[in-house]
Amino acid sequence: xxxxxxxxxxxxxxxxxxxxxxxxxxxxxxxxxxxxxxxxxxxxxxxxxxxxxxxxxxxxxxxxxxxxxxxxxxxxxxxxxxxxxxxxxxxxxxxxxxxxxxxxxxxxxxxxxxxxxxxxxxxxxxxxxxxxxxxxxxxxxxxxxxxxxxxxxxxxxxxxxxxxxxxxxxxxxxxxxxxxxxxxxxxxxxxxxxxxxxxxxxxxxxxxxxxxxxxxxxxxxxxxxxxxxxxxxxxxxxxxxxxxxxxxxxxxxxxxxxxxxxxxxxxxxxxxxxxxxxxxxxxxxxxxxxxxxxxxxxxxxxxxxxxxxxxxxxxxxxxxxxxxxxxxxxxxxxxxxxxxxxxxxxxxxxxxxx
Length: 354
Fold this sequence. Notes:
By secondary structure, the chain is of the alpha/beta class. Helix content is about 30%, strand content about 25%. Strands 3, 5, 6, 7, 8, 15 and 16 form a seven-stranded mixed beta sheet that branches. The protein has a six-stranded parallel beta sheet with strand order 11-10-9-12-13-14, sandwiched between helices. It has a three-stranded antiparallel beta sheet with strand order 2-1-4, covered by helices on one side. Helix 2 packs across helix 3 and helix 2 crosses helix 10. The longest helix has 20 residues, at about 125-145.
């Protein structure tokens, strides 16, 4: 058998754990295709920040971490027990958290339970670029809360790739959506969305009160579901970065939540004081933590997870989802793009096209 050499992108952490370097490694011939494996020729791979803290907490930290997990591509070969796919099928999916494979490689091996069929109408870049934000949006609005017609949803930072998909899913389910914008460009983008967002709250100058605007928009009743993009935990003088200045304080979110409301937070270190808890108790409101990796950390919900992935592809195919994607990037620029993504400096989803 002739040797096939491919490049794959990996991430190396320095000893302090702070700085990261991204390196291309030569790899020769994939291991043999297992019984349940699908060999995929990658056509596009989206870039997402590597959560080293989560990886170390679930004991998956290693010296070289594979980069790129959201992929779309063509099936080259299937294991003998694979029942969902056959060669030449077009597929999309997310490599599991413990995957040894880098999605930024021409060919990868994936267990069949992490892939779904990609509709013909959906291009490679859109399939790879939407799948993670789609999973997050479904986790937030379908499993952690039940978005339905007549509900009001506040999506913080709606112009982000995740915010855009969350808005579109909420509107598709018949909800009224309010969103915050962190800049004039974000505000203009959100105002151009169709169907239209009920209200865009521009918080870029720090003068507009989010809670007040939401209560005004809902006739004083408050919103049913809040999906935050981080929150201020302390008073202004304790917060350092300029981005955190634009975030709402946790008290603002509790104030604008309606009775029986759901607050879905991305803030992993959220601390609630007794008065905060008391306010939530009086409203009968809930706080849920949004960690889309739960689907990968436990196989018990595998069926639901595959349903989500299939639904995301269907909604892309029917143009319900119109993602916030940057121009496709060639593989040789992947290292530079990944550095930008890791520093949270990309405003649109970065996708590498092969």
